[in-house]
Amino acid sequence: IQLYARVRLALKNGEFQPYYQPKVSLRSGAIVGFEALLRWRHPRRGLLGPQEFGQVFDDADLAGAIGERVLELATRDMAAWVAQGCEFGHVAINMSSSEFTRGGLPERVLTALDNSHIQPERLAIEVTETVFLGRGTEMVRHSLQSLNHAGVRIALDDFGTGYASLSHLKQFPVDRIKIDRSFVHDIEHDIDDAAIVRAVIHLGQSLGIETVAEGVETPAQAAYLRANGCDLAQGFLYSKALPASRIPALLRGWD
Ligand code: G
Ligand code: G
Ligand code: NA
Ligand code: MN
Q1: 60-83 and 3-12 are packed helices; what angle lies between their axes, rounded to 10 degrees?
Q2: pLDDT tens for each residue of 113-160
Q3: Smallest CA separation from ligand 1 atom 23, residue
Q4: CA–CA distance, 125 with 135 (Å, rounded to integer)
């Protein structure tokens, strides 16, 4: 059975589920939010990440259907955390180009938030720079602007790995830059990676954009990032992505 048909079935059977990875303030050590990372609980193959099925995001219909499901589940999880008195900060969800070009995205997002009684400020949308390229950039700009005006935060993912253009930071509303984990990995030993990371942090500071380091795995990496003024960090040093049910305990056990 073909992947696309199998994904349709998985949607029908409720096999997709967002897991949540914490983002930590490098200044205070507190958890300030989470990134929703999609997982497929495959009945035979076990827990799969997007690297095993990410090509389905290239299909506009499937990407749209999966995106709607992620939005529905993430807002539902946020509402459940609120009901438990759990202070989770914000949740960032990832969106691919085809989710924008379908149209109606701002309305769908704001309706989902409204239905769960979640303030827009508690949601962030992560996009990579590829959404700014090619056809449909006017639609993307318009969607991001309406969401941003409503209070939703916009994060630029994998910064520096794609066709980065600094003009994107002017043309699109960007609240947060995510420094790709490929730059963070060797930060202590590779002077070029370290220089790039410091430059991105300074760029963020100059423009009033928050910086988030991805893939932080060691205390030494975190210390370097903190010393150089990076705002937030995310990575296995703190936690891998966990199912929603485990987030309240994670927050309770955090210093
Ligand atoms: O979760 P990691 O565990 O494997 O995620 C791999 C990639 O898949 C990341 O680049 C992430 O941005 C992307 N991704 C994860 N969840 C989603 C999602 O719900 N929608 C989209 N479009 N991309 C996602
Ligand atoms: O959106 P994006 O590609 O940046 O998604 C983050 C990806 O990185 C996910 O696949 C997630 O599981 C993975 N990830 C999260 N923390 C770490 C980490 O500390 N090290 C590595 N190597 N990968 C991580
Ligand atoms: Na991401
Ligand atoms: Mn990323």
Answers
A1: 30
A2: 999 999 999 999 999 988 888 788 889 999 999 999 999 999 999 998
A3: 94
A4: 20
The model carries a pTM of 0.96
- Domain borders along the chain are 3-253
Chain centre to alpha carbon of residue 17: 15
Buried-state track 72-90, b at ≥16 Cβ within 10 A, e below 16: ebbbbbbeebeeeeeebeb
Distance of CA 142 to the CA centre of its chain: 20
Q: How far is the CA of 188 from the centre of ligand 2 (A)?
A: 19
What's the 93 CA to ligand 1 centre distance in angstroms?
Answer: 9
Kindly give the number of the ligand 1 atom that is closest to the alpha carbon of 38.
16
ipTM of the complex: 0.96
Architecture of the structural domain at 3-253: Alpha-Beta Barrel (3.20)
Residues of the chain with pLDDT under 50: none
Looking at residue 1, its pLDDT comes to 65
Establish whether residue 217 lines the binding site of ligand 2, counting it when its CB lies within 6 angstroms of any ligand atom: yes
